[in-house]
Write a structure and sequence with these properties.
The protein has 153 residues and is of the alpha+beta class. The protein has 2 domains: 109 residues, PH-domain like; 37 residues, no CATH class. It contains 3 helices and 8 strands. The chain has an 8-stranded mixed sheet. The longest helix has 28 residues. The radius of gyration is 16 Å and the shape is globular. 24% of the residues are buried.
Length: 153
């Protein structure tokens, strides 16, 4: 498989998907729309609005991976792998940013949207990884969810 993280994991990958940080797409869309509609002032206002949180507390303890990361699943673990920009698409690197044994995965859910889906991986310690999944990566995110015994909604 050309796009997988087997070399980074050191074991065969079962499933994997490109992901964005939670809220990344909303921030970019709001900032772009604001910039086009109202120039610099609108862009700053939209950026401020997009940067606000809903007030809900989320316990996401994962490393910063930039604008695109790769979630990989092997027989024994779930990993977040760093990506880099290639000539035409993102490339998976050999740098694993975080590894969690599959035995510590409590639940996985992919909330499927038309243009944007949301992947949540919750762990037994109460922490969770939350990602935005663009339309182009929806099928691979479905494979990650099913490989981990999660639910599609």
């Amino acid at each position: 498989m050309a796009d997988d993280a087997s070399s980074a994991l050191g074991v065969p990958e079962i499933a994997g998907s490109l992901v964005n940080p939670k809220g990344f797409t909303k921030k970019i869309t709001a900032a772009t729309a604001g910039s086009q509609l109202g120039g610099a002032i609108g862009g700053m206002a939209a950026g401020a609005i997009a940067g606000r949180t809903s007030g809900a507390s989320t316990s996401v303890e994962m490393p910063n991976f930039g604008r695109v990361g790769y979630v990989a699943v092997s027989e024994t673990e779930v990993a977040l792998v760093k990506t880099k920009t290639g000539a035409f698409k993102m490339k998976i690197t050999d740098e694993v940013l975080a590894r969690v044994p599959r035995s510590e995965v409590a639940s996985v859910e992919l909330d499927q949207g038309t243009l944007l889906s949301h992947l949540t991986i919750e762990f037994t310690d109460g922490l969770a990884w939350r990602f935005d999944v663009p339309k182009a990566a929806k099928k691979t995110a479905q494979a990650v969810t099913l490989a981990l015994g999660g639910t599609l909604s």
